[in-house]
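Researcher: Please generate the 3D structure of the following complex. Treat every line as part of one assembly.
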Amino acid sequence: MNDTPVNHRVEVKNTTCYMCACRCGIRVTLRDGEVRYIQGNPEHPLNQGVICAKGASGIMKQYSPARLTHPLRRKAGSERGSGEFEIISWDEAFGILEDRLREIRATDPKKLALFTGRDQMQALTGMFAKQFGTPNYAAHGGFCSVNMAAGMIYTIGGSFWEFGGPDLDRAKLFVMFGTAEDHHSNPMKIALSKFKRNGGRFISINPVRTGYSAIADEWVPIKPGTDGALLLALCHVLIKTGLYDRDFLARYTNAPELVNLNSQSDEFGMFVRTEIPEEEGCFDPQNKLWWDRELDRPISMQTPGSDPRLLGAFKLDDGTPVKPAFALLCERLEQYTPEWASAITNIPTETIVRLAHEMGITARDKRIELPIAWTDVWGNEHDKVCGNPVAFHAMRGLAAHSNGFHTIRTLSILMTLLGTIDRPGGFRHKAPFPRPIPPCPKTPTEAADVQPNSPLNGMPLGWPADPDDLFVDAEGEPIRIDKAFSWEYPLSVHGLMHNVITNAWRGDPYPIDTLFLFMANMAWNSAMNTDVVRQMLNDKDSDGNYKIPFIVVADAFQSETVAFADLVLPDTTYLERYDCMSMLDRPISEFDGPVDSVRIPVVPPTGECKPFQEVLIELGSRLKLPIFVNDDGQRKYRNYPDFVINFETAPGSGIGFLGGWRGSGGQKSLKGEPNPSQWQAYEKNNCVFHYHLPRSYQYMRNWNLGYLQWAQAHGMTRYAEPINIHIYSEVLQKFRLAAQGKSFGKQPPDRLRKRVEKYFDPLPFYYEPLEAQLTDQSRYPLNAITQRPMAMYHSWDSQNAWLRQIHTYNFLYLHPKTAQSQGITDGGWMWVESMHGKVRCMARYSEAVEPGTVWTWNAIGKASGAWNLGKNANESKQGFLLNHLISEELPPHHDGDHLSNSDPVTGQAGWYDVRVRVYPAGAKEPRTTSPRYTALPKLPGSAKRPAWISYMAGLFNKGGAK
Amino acid sequence: MTQLALVIDLNVCVGCHACVTSCKEWNTSGVAGPLFDDNPYDANPTGTFFNRVQTFEIGTFPKTETVHFPKSCLHCEDPPCVPVCPTGASYKRREDGIVLVDYDKCIGCKYCSWACPYGAREIDEQQRVMKKCTLCVDRLYDASLPESERKPSCVLACPTQARIYGDIHDADSAASMAIRERGGYQLMPEWGTQPANHYLPRRKTELHIHADELVRSDNPLKKEDIRKGPSREVNLDDWMF
Amino acid sequence: MHPALSVIFLTTLIGAGQGLFLALFTGESYAAINIIPEQRHQFFAVGGLIVLMLLIAGLVASFFHLGHPERAWRAVTQWRTSWLSREVIILPLVMLLVALWSIAHYLEWNPTLLGMELGSEITLTLGAVTSAAVFLLYIATAMIYASIRFLREWASPLTVINFTLLGAASGFLLATAYATNYAQNLVNFYGGWAMILTLAAWFSRSAALIRNARLKPKSTIQSAIGIRHSQIAQKSMGMMGGSYNTREYFHGASRMVLRLIKWLALVLTFPLPLLLIWFGMSSDNAQLILIALFVQYLGLLFERWLFFAQANHPQNIYYQTVG
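Model: Done. Output below.
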């Protein structure tokens, strides 16, 4: 072995990982300025010293030849998509952008569409869009997991991942539904392992058994898109058996609140309010009625000493028939028997019943009591915190279906029936959650909210509480390019990035000028209907002009989308820049308190790379967007680090991007005047700020007076009001009433009335995913889904020399019986076809997949030459995308011709709804995937691909030709 | 005598490959490096790795188990790869039982790799010497590292703590206790190589529900019993006297 | 195992060289007791040179197998445990002895010891010692393979017997061909031995093939990963672009190719040379003997390829499926 190198300059620096969106703390060792070792930071609350395959491969990301290193302009006369570029200077790039954007802003700001991928800087990008005045902004949430966010936040005021999660330290039973294994991965792995070693029982409900599911004590294979049916049946059994937490329901949810059932009334389906009128903000005023058990009459909710009825039918004095919300839920659940669910989910009836019993009995009989005194928001003192140790987790498996919103609402209700919300062993919130149902931010509401040379009048994304919050014009038609917050997808709280290109291409609702994409691979794995979307990006009108006139792509790597750009802006890697995981975005809070963190560069930028934040601040300053300039129009912030320290949400608000070490001397937390030494404080403290809440503030936060007052004082929330759980959603009912013409506010266009009325059901219900409803299932009998390999994050890692050795191409996994019935051999070439397209790929038999489902790893397939891979790279020859089979729009049907292939409530992309058939490839067909694309050339300025690498940091290099 | 080893817990390994690449990154710039990669950005990329994670499916649907199986040198107590080496490059350290290769003595004849039933060795096709897991020997005794980090890189990385590192000859070490108490076993015991690395099997937690548990006096449904008005149907009350 | 050309040439070339020496020495010692006619010294001297050349060619081939041939000298150090080390020691020893023996013949060396002319005693003694070393070399070479108990196709006395018999047969055949030019009166003698040895090797090699066909693997996927279940299938070997594990231990040939090579090896090594030698001898046709020699050597290349390809390394259990 070689001797240990001596006399080298060794430095150790802390920063935050960005090989996925998990945001673990990392410690980077440099040798002579080169990255020698990246390890998990043992002092970081999120990953506690561990690291994953991606994080440990950061070196190969930093030195990847796929890096963009110069601003590039598409060569005059070359076609988009052909990848022919010339190097330009940043001055030129900024000049081009400034001129173009100034013109747009002065005429019609919404002609700029700014959409970003998994960027972790929505606080800044969103702010830029708002300041610019365009409503056409969103991140990738709409095609990721908005159903998970919306379904839960509209029900319990919090959700999974950044917003909250399962308390596996104390849980006894853990049930996981379809979860992407690259999300929140290290914390989940740490927790799962501890949970199993502590003797917890882990049940995985998933069509496929990989990753986390592999170590489950029981795997329950389920047909994709049917989780809602299973969850409804579980609720059915829990209620029939009496295995629900009545006290929790009565005290902390709207279960006992009386619903007006006078079908003639405009108030039908709304809660009956007390006489006393109360200002209703974006919180749930405590002005509803219960039916008191002892007095046998209505009583103001939460009247001390009152015990409400949860079931029964009553009449108010004025003759209005009413029922407690819980009674309506029980009536709804009546039809959802285990037998019914079994036929839909392919899970045996007895398994469904047993699962419900396991949950109910564990929750009831393994109850946890912690000696933690707390005060509820109604003033009641409690001497303990109770918990029912059944925890759940779910992600895209539930979310990425067009029935996902209701499925996830059902899951939230199931968790509520078991009494597990923000209690030990159940679901726990992470600050700033819980938030009001729904949270306060609102989008603009009318066309006039978009004005030239003015910031947007409202947030680019928000949380509609009723139809009047929708962002539609006088005809009720969408104003955003993605049609978010319109009657088509009213609660599309993360936007619909997956429809932007199609809508812009079609000019529906209007054509745009500039499409500005950051870190979003919209010409490849982030697009539905990839093949056609690529054509749209390149399509011209009859005058020979591109239908999308100008495309700007900012990215650190040569993604497939870069080839379609007119202007390319090279971003830095995560090791080269300042970043913050801000309280204003999605921080990395823990159950015990808010946490935010930063990145601090450990190596200088490569080539001409510039952090995207600097690009935005430069542009904002040049365009004189109000927050980026002083009153005299002079540039306000030197650079991004300066911006992070000094920006406040409002002058003197004391709230900025980072919560740690605020105040002039760094003595204040979360709220306080800017601290010029804030970055140094983070640097000294492992780049992370962790605020530990007192124990009495750590549970029952929806109703915890101490916590809510603390949160209000520290700017986490506007109200210190209780956040009761919505087992019955009045918000949804308001939209339904509008669709029924019973409201006075905004009403849907007639063509959408039926759709809104159907899907805005205040109670959870099951329907088959929309695409499946519109598919000839005898022709396309199978479900096709993707899974996330733990050693890859989306498409990011095919340029990584180490990670791509683990996944260099992908197979379609299918059950041997499914394959053999079609004559498909193990390892053989085959076709998988949906009604939208077909893909040739290789088959791999698997016993770990439900026979009605086929699946593959997500985003391994690449376009030839993209990511600076050789044109014979396996990714483009054998690797494939399932995206070609999935349409961004539903086939024309009774609700409309161009409706998004999305959840009708939230606009969540229905990735996993696609139905397919499979058959063998012909013997004479080429042994390569189809479709394939012309190989992209190497970009000017990007590094030469070495034929080999022998990496040794700081010593000898490294790679070369053969 | 000390025998350092890894005990790998298949009960918690989720197959994330963290051990694979953290091993690669530590060792390529360490005393065992560099670790060569060939065709890193083209067809059939391949390279020297000391550690791999494999996947197996056990049983048939729906009773399928998916097992992720990390695999590296097992540091056999009776390593068959050592005596066959013609130059003495392959050796087992007396002081801690780690099996190593002295690159300066290795002639690259590959014979040691043939003599390993586990396929734990890989030739570095550029340096043309045999390479293998060193148990990060350049971490274990490095006094410049904090005590808690004097462990193999894979052990530090593993998010599920599925890799327990220690002296399996010390009955009180966490590794020995795990072997003893959680059914640790060796691979291919038929060859008598006495691998020092052990594996811990899958274990299942089950919940057995007794019918009694479903019927309880505190069933909340009882609270909802709503008194019904008089029944209009004919009943015994009308007939009996 | 993946058959490496370097090792195939090494073992077949030195095997034939060693066999040729045995043939030459058999000729010399039979002549010494007057069973066959005596030959000129130069016949043995040139023959020894051929032996030497074959051994050197083998040695050169072996260097192609090494990553660092410049360090090959280090390989002499582990003779206590490593058969490879032993081979590395014995091979030069044999070369030295063969060289001495050849030189003694070339110089027609006749030293006087205690007033006695040693005459042929010296080459006979040297030849006997060399023969012993040659046998040791066969054993050492074969034991490199036979001592790996995991490779059960190899771990058998038959490996040693085969290496010895096949080497000897090809060596005697070479001697026969050599004799057709320089010692016609020994053609039938060497030819006869070549046929006997080829027959014996046919028998022992077939025994090995039959044994291999009946071998039940001792390691199974169950023992490899320690899970007791009758249905286990690998879904991923942890990498997709191949690795040393997939390149070194798998022959990569289809079943058809394997079968074809097996029959080629059998036919070319055994019956065809036997027939050719027989006809060559009976028709005094040197050409046929020469053809027999090349046919058998070709057969031996196939045979050695098969020898490696048939060895099923237990590590292969871990490398069944890319996924």
